[in-house]
Batch of 3 targets.
Target 1
Amino acid sequence: MNPDQDRWSRVKERLRTSVGENVFSSWFARMEPESIDGDTVKLSVPTRFLKSWVQSHYAEKLLGCWQSEVPSIMRIELTVRSAVIRTLVAKAKPAETPVVRHELRDGKANGMEFRAASAPISAVHEALGGSPLDPRLTFESFVVGRSNTLAHAAAKQVAQGRRGDPVMFNPLYIHAGVGLGKTHLLQSIAWAGNASAERKVLYLTAERFMYGFVAALRAQNALAFKEALRTIDVLVIDDLQFLQGKSTQVEFCHTLNALIDAGRQVVIASDRPPSDLESLDERVRSRLAGGLVVEMGSLGEELRLEILKSRAAAWKHHHPSFDVPLPVLTFIAKTVTHNGRDLEGALNRLLAHSKLTGQPITLEMAEREVRDLIRPQEPKRVKIEEIQRIVARQYNVSRADLLSSRRTANVVRPRQVAMYLAKTLTLRSLPEIGRRFGGRDHTTVLHAVRKIENLVNSDTALAEEIELLKRQLQE
Ligand code: ADP
Ligand code: MG
C-alpha cells in the first residue's frame, strides 16, 4: 500500500526543521515513499551515492521523524529507484559467457575465502559510485621487480596512510605502457585502503569519473558536492588519458584542487607523463606534475618469470591438476611480450588446453599454444662486411677477391652468394649492395640474387651451404 501522502509531508516537514533547509534539499528533496510494510517504511532515492550517504549520516534522524508520526515504525529501508534494472543487467551477463571461459574466470581468483571476505569492501566502494574492483588485483599478488619498485613503494605508502596523516606526495602520478601493472597497483591501493573502515578510497576510471561521478555530483548542489568530497580520503583515477571534454576537465580540476587543498590523497595512472596529456589545461598538467611522478618500466624477463610463477601457483588452488613445469614458465617468460596481459593470456591457454584434453603441460604443447603471443625476434642485424668475411672464409678466397672485378669461376660464385645473402639478411637496397661490392651496378646484384635463388631450388648441396652460412651469420 502507498503510505498516505499527508503523513509523508509531515515527516518531511519534521526533517526539514531538524536538519535545516540546506541539508534537507541536498539529501531528502528527491526521496520518495514506496510503501509501509508492517513496521518497515520503504523509501527510495535516485542514486546509490545518495542512499549510502543518507544511511550513514541520517538514518537515525529519519527513523526518529517517522516514529514521531507513526510510533509503530521500527525500520527504514532505502532503495535505489533504478536498482531493479541494474541488478537484472548484472545477473544476465555471466549466463551469456561460455562455460569454459566461466571456469577460467574462476581460475583467476586467488581463492574463494578471499573473495567472500572482499564482498563488504566492494559493497561500500560501489555505494560510493566507484568502478568495480577485481579481487585478484591486490598487493599480495603484485610482484615487485626492478621496473616497479618505486611505484610499488609509493602505492604502499599511500595505502597505509591514516586519516589525518600528513600527505607525503600529492598527487601520486604513475605512468607506464599498456599491461605493465598500473591498474593492478591502483586497485591494490583501493582494496588495502578500504580494508579499514576508518578510511574511504574511491577508485574510478576516467570514464567513470566523466559519466558517473561528475554527473552524480552535478545532480546535487554545491553543498552536496563539498560534503561528498569530504567523505573521500583517497581518490584514485585510472587511465587519465581518456579524460575528455572541456566541462569534464573543469570538474576534474575543481575536484583535484579541492581534494589536494583539503589534504586528501589523489592517485592517478596514465599511459603517459603529465606533460604529454595534450588535451589538458596547462595549469592542470602542472598541478599533476607537482606531486610525485613515477614511471614503471617494461617487465624484465626475471619479473615476468616471477609473475608467471605466482600466477600458476594461485591457479593451482582452484585447479589442482594444473601443473606447469618450470621450463615451460621459463620459456614463456623468455618469449612472450613484455605485456602482463599476454603473460596471463599464455597461462590461460595452457589451462584451457590441459582442462579440455586432460594432457599434462609440456614444452612442445606450450610452444604450440602460445605461438602467436611470441614476441617477434628482433632479427639480428647482419653487416655486409661480416657476410663478405664469412663467405670468403667458407670458399677460401679473400675479401678483396669478392670486391674485385675478377670473373674467374672460383670467385664469381662466392660473390653471387655473398650478394644474395646481403639482399636476404639485410635491409640494404640493391644499389647500396652494389656499391659495397666494389661499386657494381644494381642490375648485377639483381642478377646474382635471381641466379642463386634459382640454383637453391635445384642444387641441394648449395642450399645446405647457404643455410649453414646464414646460421653462422645470425648466431
Ligand atoms: P595496465 O593497467 O598498466 O595496462 P594491468 O594492471 O591491467 O596493466 O596489468 C596487466 C596484467 O598483468 C594484469 O593481469 C596484472 O595482474 C598483471 N601484472 C602486471 N604487473 C604485475 C606485477 N608486478 N605483479 C603481478 N601481476 C602483474
Ligand atoms: Mg589499466
Note: Residues 24 and 270 are 39 Å apart (CA to CA).
Target 2
Amino acid sequence: MKKIFAVLLTGVLLVCCGCGAEQAGQVRQIQNVDTAMGTVISQTLYTTGDETETAAEIMELLRKLEEDVLSRRLDTSEVWSLNAAAGSAEGCSLSDPMEEILEGCLEIWEKSDEAFDVTMGPVVSLWDIDSWAAGEKEGMFAPPEEEQLQNALEICGSGSLDIRGNRLYLPDGAQLDLGAVGKGIALDHILAYLREKDEITGAVISLGGSVLTYGQKPDGGCWNVGIANPEDTASNVGILTLEGEWFISTSGDYERYMEVDGIRYHHIIDPATGYPADSGVAGVTILAKDGFLSDALSTACFILGEERGLALAENFGAEALFVGKDGSITMSRGMKAYYHSGK
Ligand code: AMP
Ligand code: MG
C-alpha cells in the first residue's frame, strides 16, 4: 500500500507576495505563517501603523471560532453541542449566526441537487480521510465496508434538518460537519475584523485552499492568486489577477487523500454513493464576494462536475474554474476577465 500524506497548503498558491517585513513608503508589510483549523494559515498584511499584533489577533480569532463554533471534535463548540443533542426531543438552542449558516447550507443543498450536504458527518467519520492523511492514525488505511456506508448514509440528509424557534432538532445519530464551509466562514470574520482596522490598507490571507484579498498593495498593483496544478501542487495552472476584496476557494482531490492499489480516496464525499466524488474533476476554484459562498460552492461544484457545477455557480453569481483529471481547464465566462495562464 502506498501511503500518501496530504499537503495542506495546496489549493491556492499566493504569487508575488514577497517575504519578511518590508517598507514601502509609509506602508509596512507583515508576513506570518502559522497553523489553525487543521491547516496552514498564511497572512500578508500591509499596514500604516506600527502595531504588530494584527496577525496574532487574526490567529486568535480563528482559534476561537474553531473552539466556540465550528469544531466537531471539541466539546466547547456549538457544532459539538448540536450533534450531542441529536435524537433528543428538546433539540438544542441555535445561535443567530449558526442559524444563518445552516439556512445558507440548506439553500445550497437544495440547489446542488443534494450534492452539498452538511449532515454527511456519519459518512465523513467512517472515511475519516482527514485523520489518515494528517498521519494521526496508525496502521493500514482501508475503505469502509459497503454495509457500514449504506447504514451511515441512511442517517444523513439535510432534509432532516429541523430548525424551529431558534432550536435545531436532529434525528438520532445525525452529525453536522461544517468542514466544507469553515474556512470560508472564517474568512468572512477576518474581513469584518480588517474593516475595523483603519491602519490595514491591504491584505492577502490564505487558510489552506481558501483565500481572501483585501484593500490594495502599496504600489496600487493587483493581487495575483495562483491556482494550484492538481498534478503538481508546487506549480499552478494559472493566475487570477484581482483588485480589492475577493474570496477564492479551491476544492481538490489532492488536498487530503489516501491511495490504495492505485485508487485515490479523497475527502469530498458524494452523498449519492457514500464514496469520494468522482465527477472527472481534479480541482475547482470559485471566485465570489462572500467567503461562506465561495467555500460551499467549491465543494458542491467538485461533486457536481463541470456542467452542473457551472450552472450552480452561475445561479449564485459566482465565477468557477474547473481543472479536469485530464488536465483540461474550463471556466465560467466571467472568470475569463480575471484568469491568465501565466505562460
Ligand atoms: P472542502 O475542502 O471545502 O471542499 O471541504 C471538504 C470537507 O467537507 C470534508 O473534509 C468534509 O468534512 C466535508 N464534506 C465531505 N463531503 C461533503 C459533502 N458532500 N457536502 C458537504 N460537506 C462535505
Ligand atoms: Mg468548501
Note: The pocket of magnesium ion (ligand 2) is lined by residues 180, 249, 251, 295-296, 298-299 (CB under 6 Å).
Target 3
Amino acid sequence: MRKKIVAGNWKMNNDLSASTTLAAEIKAGLSSMALTDIEVMIAPTSVNLQAVAEVTKGAPITVAAQNMHYAENGAFTGEISAKMLQSVGVNTVILGHSERRAYFNEDANLLAKKVEQALEHQMKIVFCFGEQLEDRKENQHFNVVENQLRDALFQLTPADWQHIVLAYEPVWAIGTGETASPAQAQEMHAFIRELIAEHYDEEVAEDVCILYGGSVKPSNAKEIFSQKDVDGGLIGGASLKSEDFLALIKAI
Ligand code: PGA
C-alpha cells in the first residue's frame, strides 16, 4: 500500500541559519501530529543538508537533496555524488525538476544516468516531470508526460520502482500561483498510473506514489490531495514557512 508524502523543495532559498530554524520549527510542529502512513520530506540546498539532517535527527522527517551527479566521483567541478550525500545521512534525491531541465539542460539521457546512479546506491528518487503550457494548449500534455517517463524510467525493473516517487509538476503551475485544477491533476495522475500498469503491472502501478507539484498552498491543498490518484505534493513556495508547510501536512 502506498503512503502519502508531503515534500518541501526549498530550492535556492535559506542560508544555514534560516535552514536550521525552519527545520527545527517543522520538527516541533510535527511532534504533536499523528503521522500514520504519511512521509514528510524537506530538501534544503546541498550546503545545508548536513546541518538539517542533524537538526531533524529523531524526527519523522526525510532530508532530501535537490540534485546529484551521475558519476561515482571524479573531475566534475561543483558537482555532488551519491556517496557524498549518503555520507551526510541523505538517502533521497529529487531528480528531473523542471528548473534543472530548463536552466541546466538536463535531458532524458542525463536523467536516466542519474536515476541509474541513485539506484546503484539504493537511494530513493523523487522524479519530476510535467508539460509546458504550450504542450497543454496543443493537447500534447499526455504525450509529453508519457515520453518523459518512458525515456528516463521505463528501463527500470519492477523492483527498482520501490525506490521511485513520481512528481507530476506542470511547468505552467510552478511558482506561478496558477494550479492545475484538482480534476486536471487527477486526470493526469490516473493516466500515469495506467501507463505504469500497462508497461509493468497493476502492483507496480498501485504501489507508486504520485505527487502533484505546482503552486500548492494551504488554501488549495485539501482539494488536490483528496483526489484518488494524488498521493501528496511537492511544494516550493509554501514550504518555506513552517506554518504553511505544517498546514499542508495537516491537509493530507
Ligand atoms: P511551487 O514549486 O510550489 O512554488 O509552485 C513547486 C516545485 O517547483 O516543486
Note: The pocket of 2-phosphoglycolic acid is lined by residues 9, 169, 174-175, 213-216, 234-238 (CB under 6 Å).
